C-alpha cells in the first residue's frame, strides 16, 4: 500500500509540474516581470531617496520581502487555479474514485504548489541580482521558511478552492485578504517605523512573521522573534493541513 | 454465488431535500453484464455515484465483492473502474497522459502503466490520437477514452453510465463487442443505458429503477415473457386499403407496411391468410424492436412527473 501511495503522489506531482511548465507564460513569467517593476520603481527610483532601513540599503531590505510575496501569491494561486479547475471540469473525480488516500492527494497537490512557489522564488531572487548583491545570513532559515510558507498558502488555496462554487469565489480571497495582508506584512517597511499601537495591530498579521523570518535568513535582522514565528508557521501548517484533509475525508464541496 | 455488488436499504437525500434513493436493495452477481434502467432522475447515477465514492450516502450499506464500502473504502475503490455520463477528463491533456496518470493514481508502477496505456488505447482505437490534445477528439473518441481510462486498473467491476450515448452505430457496436470481450475475461460490468436494445443485446439480468425504488430486478428473458402482447410489422407488396386495416385491427406504417399487435398465444397464420385472401402478398415480417421499451414505459409510469419530483440522477 505504501508503494502504491508513493506512485500515486509521484503521478499527481508530475501531472501538476507538467501543467505549470506547459503554461509557464502564466505561471512563471508574470512574477518575474512584476517583481522587476517593483525592483526598478521601489528599489532603484524611490528606494535611493529612502536611505537605510534597519541598517541596510532599501533595495537589500525589500528583496527578501518581494521574493516571499511572489512565493505566497504563486503558491496560493497555483492551488486555487489547479484544484478549482479540476473541480469545475470534474476531472478531480479521477482522484476521488482512485484508492489514493486523502492525505496523499493533498501531498500531491501541495507538492505541485511547492514546485511553483520555489521556482518563482528562485526566478525572482535571480532577477534581484541585477539590482543588488544578496547576502545570506542562514541558508537553512531561508529554505525552511520559504518551504513552510509555500505549504501554508497552498493549503489555504486548497480550502478556498474546495468551497468555491464559481470563479469569482477564488478571486475574492486573494484580492481582499491575501494582497492587503502581504502589503501590510512588512514587505516594504520595518514595523519599527509604525506607532506602538499599529505595531501591535501588525503582529496579528501572520504574513509579517513569515516575511521577517525569511528576511532574518538573508540579513540577520527581524522585527519579531523567529522562534515565535516558526511556532506560528508550523501551527498554521498543522491546522490548515488537518482541515484540508477533513475536507477530502468528508467530501465537503467535492461530493454531493 | 459471489456478488459483485450488494446494496441494502440504501438511502440518499440531497441537501435540497430531494430523496434520490428511498431504501434500495440490490444484488448483482459477479461475471455478467448487468443493466440498470430507469428514466432521467430515477436515481441511477446517484446509485453509481455512491458505489464509486463520488456521492455520500445518507444511510444503508454497500458491499463490493464482499468488501464494505464504509469499512474498507480503499479496497473497494481499487476494484472499480468508472465511465461516467459526462466527460470528466482534463481536455488540455493528451489521451496518453490521461490514461497513464489514472494508472498512477491506482498505484500501478510506471512500466506496467505505460504497457496498459498502450494496450487499452489500441483496443479502443485511440492509439493514433495518443498525443493529440483531448479537447479536439470527437464525441465518440472522448467516450472511448473514458473507457480506456476506466480499464487501466483492470477492475473487477466496471461501471458505465450510458457509455454509448451520442456515438454512431458502428462505434456503438464495436463498443458492445469490446464490453463482451472484457466480460469474458471475468470483469463484471454494470451499465445504465437509454438504449433498451443495448440492454437486450448485452445483458442477462436487469434492474429497473424509478422514483428511487427498484421496481423490477430479473432476467431480461423473464421480463420479456411478461409481455402478453407482441407487435409485428408486415411489409406488403402494395399499400393497404382501410378495409384490410380495419379487418385486422392494424395501423398503416410506412408505405406498404402495417403494424399489428396480437396476443402472445394468437397464431400468426390467420393474419397471413386474411392478407392473402384480400390479395396482399407478405414480402417480409419482423418483430418490433422496442418491445422492452413498451414494458419499461409501462413500469416507470409518467416520466414528466418523475422529472418534476426528482432532479438528481
Automatic annotation (TrEMBL), chain A:
Record carries keyword Transport: yes
One Pfam family named in its UniProt record: ABC2_membrane
Domain ABC transmembrane type-2: 22-251
GO (cellular component) term, any one: ATP-binding cassette (ABC) transporter complex
Record's keyword terms, sorted: Cell membrane, Membrane, Transmembrane, Transmembrane helix, Transport
Compartments (UniProt record): Cell inner membrane; Membrane
Domain of life: Bacteria
NCBIfam families in UniProt: PRK15066.1
Protein name: Transport permease protein
Name of the gene this protein is made from: yadH
From TrEMBL, chain B:
Alphabetical list of InterPro entries matching this protein: AAA+_ATPase (IPR003593), ABC_transporter-like_ATP-bd (IPR003439), ABC_transporter-like_CS (IPR017871), ABC_transporter_ATP-binding (IPR050763), P-loop_NTPase (IPR027417)
Annotated source species: Marinicella pacifica
GO molecular function, one term: ATP binding
Signal peptide residues on this chain, from the entry's feature table: none
Residue intervals passing through the bilayer: none
The keyword Nucleotide-binding is assigned to this record: yes
Name recorded for this polypeptide: Multidrug ABC transporter ATP-binding protein
Pfam families referenced in this protein's UniProt entry, alphabetically: ABC_tran
Amino acid at each position: 500500500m505504501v508503494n502504491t501511495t508513493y506512485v500515486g503522489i509521484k503521478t499527481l506531482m508530475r501531472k501538476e509540474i507538467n501543467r505549470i511548465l506547459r503554461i509557464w507564460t502564466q505561471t512563471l513569467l508574470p512574477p518575474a516581470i512584476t517583481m522587476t517593476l517593483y525592483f526598478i520603481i521601489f528599489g532603484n527610483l524611490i528606494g535611493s531617496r529612502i536611505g537605510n532601513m534597519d541598517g541596510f540599503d532599501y533595495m537589500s531590505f525589500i528583496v527578501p520581502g518581494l521574493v516571499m510575496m511572489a512565493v505566497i501569491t504563486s503558491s496560493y494561486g497555483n492551488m486555487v487555479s489547479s484544484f478549482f479547475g479540476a473541480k469545475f471540469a470534474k476531472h478531480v473525480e479521477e482522484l476521488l474514485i482512485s484508492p489514493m488516500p486523502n492525505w496523499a492527494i493533498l501531498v500531491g497537490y501541495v507538492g505541485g504548489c511547492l514546485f511553483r512557489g520555489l521556482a518563482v522564488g528562485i526566478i525572482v531572487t535571480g532577477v534581484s541580482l541585477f539590482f543588488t548583491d544578496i547576502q545570506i545570513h542562514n541558508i537553512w532559515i531561508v529554505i525552511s521558511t520559504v518551504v513552510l510558507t509555500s505549504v501554508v498558502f497552498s493549503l489555504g488555496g486548497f480550502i478556498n478552492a474546495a468551497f468555491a462554487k464559481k470563479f469569482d469565489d477564488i478571486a475574492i480571497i486573494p484580492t481582499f485578504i491575501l494582497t492587503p495582508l502581504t502589503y501590510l506584512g512588512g514587505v516594504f517597511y520595518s514595523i519599527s517605523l509604525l506607532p506602538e499601537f499599529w505595531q501591535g495591530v501588525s503582529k496579528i498579521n501572520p504574513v509579517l512573521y513569515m516575511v521577517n523570518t525569511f528576511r532574518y535568513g538573508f540579513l540577520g535582522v527581524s522585527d519579531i522573534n523567529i522562534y515565535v514565528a516558526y511556532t506560528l508557521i508550523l501551527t498554521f501548517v498543522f491546522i490548515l493541513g488537518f482541515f484540508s484533509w477533513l475536507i477530502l475525508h468528508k467530501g465537503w464541496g467535492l461530493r454531493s | 454465488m459471489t456478488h459483485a455488488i450488494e446494496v441494502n436499504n440504501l438511502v440518499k437525500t440531497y441537501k435540497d431535500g430531494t430523496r434520490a434513493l428511498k431504501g434500495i436493495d440490490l444484488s448483482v452477481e459477479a461475471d455478467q453484464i448487468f443493466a440498470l434502467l430507469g428514466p432521467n432522475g430515477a436515481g441511477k447515477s446517484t446509485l453509481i455515484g455512491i458505489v464509486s465514492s463520488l456521492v455520500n450516502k445518507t444511510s444503508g450499506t454497500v458491499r463490493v465483492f464482499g468488501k464494505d464500502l464504509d469499512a474498507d473504502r480503499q479496497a473497494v475503490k481499487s476494484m472499480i473502474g468508472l465511465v461516467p455520463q459526462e466527460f470528466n477528463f482534463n481536455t488540455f491533456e493528451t489521451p496518453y497522459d490521461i490514461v497513464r496518470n489514472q494508472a498512477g493514481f491506482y498505484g500501478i508502477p510506471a512500466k506496467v502503466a505505460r504497457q496498459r496505456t498502450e494496450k487499452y488505447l489500441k483496443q479502443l482505437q485511440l492509439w493514433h490520437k495518443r498525443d493529440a490534445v483531448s479537447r479536439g477528439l470527437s464525441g465518440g473518441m472522448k467516450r472511448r477514452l473514458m473507457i480506456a481510462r476506466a480499464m487501466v486498473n483492470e477492475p473487477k467491476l466496471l461501471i458505465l453510465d450510458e457509455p454509448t450515448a451520442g456515438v454512431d452505430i458502428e462505434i456503438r457496436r464495436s463498443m458492445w463487442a469490446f464490453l463482451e470481450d472484457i466480460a469474458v475475461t471475468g470483469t463484471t460490468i454494470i451499465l445504465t443505458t437509454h438504449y433498451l436494445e443495448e440492454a437486450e443485446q448485452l445483458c442477462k439480468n436487469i434492474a429497473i429503477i424509478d422514483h428511487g425504488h427498484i421496481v423490477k430486478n430479473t432476467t431480461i428473458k423473464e421480463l420479456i415473457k411478461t409481455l402478453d402482447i407482441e407487435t409485428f410489422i408486415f411489409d406488403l407488396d402494395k399499400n393497404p386499403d382501410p378495409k384490410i386495416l380495419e379487418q385486422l385491427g392494424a395501423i398503416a406504417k410506412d408505405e406498404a407496411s402495417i403494424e399489428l399487435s396480437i396476443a402472445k398465444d394468437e397464431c400468426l397464420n390467420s393474419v397471413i391468410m386474411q392478407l392473402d385472401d384480400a390479395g396482399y402478398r407478405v414480402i417480409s415480417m419482423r418483430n418490433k424492436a422496442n418491445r422492452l421499451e413498451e414494458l419499461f414505459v409501462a413500469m416507470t409510469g409518467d416520466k414528466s412527473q418523475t422529472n418534476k419530483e426528482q432532479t438528481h440522477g
